[in-house]
Amino acid sequence: MEAAAAVNDGSLKPRKTGRLGLKPADFFIAALSVALTVWVSLGVYAGAAPTQVIISAKGSSYVYPLSEDREISIQGTSGITLVHIHDGQASIMDSPCKNKTCIQSGSISGNGQWLACLPNGIFVRIDSAQKTEDSLDALVR
Description:
Layout: H1 24-45, E1 52-57, E2 60-65, E3 70-75, E4 80-86, E5 89-94, H2 101-104, E6 107-108, E7 114-117, E8 122-127
Antiparallel strand pairs: 1-2, 1-8, 3-4, 4-5, 5-6, 7-8
C-alpha cells in the first residue's frame, strides 16, 4: 500500500496563526480568562470596608463604629482598659496588666484583625459584617 499524498487543490486554506502559533480565538479566550479572574478577585477582596469595632469583656460585647473617633473605658477582670478608636484604627492605650503586651501590639484597622488583653479579659476585633439580632451565626444538625 502506498501512502496517499495530500493534494491541495485550492479548496483548503491554511489557518492564520500569529508569531507564537496562536489563533485569534486563543487570544480572545486568554483575555476573557484574565477579565473573569480580575472580576472575581474584586468581588472577593474588595468587599465592604470594616465598619465596626467589637469589644468583648466579662461576657458582654460592645459595638462601636470604626469611623467615629472615641475613647472607651472597659471594665475587665482586673481593672479598666482604655480602647482608642481614631482615624479608622483601634488600639489599646492603657490597661492594668503587668507586661502591657496589648498596648505594644499597635493598632488594627482591617476586617478580622484583633487585639487582646488576656490578663484583663478584654478582646477587641474589627468586623465588617452587619449582623442583625435575627441573623444566624451557625447551624448545627
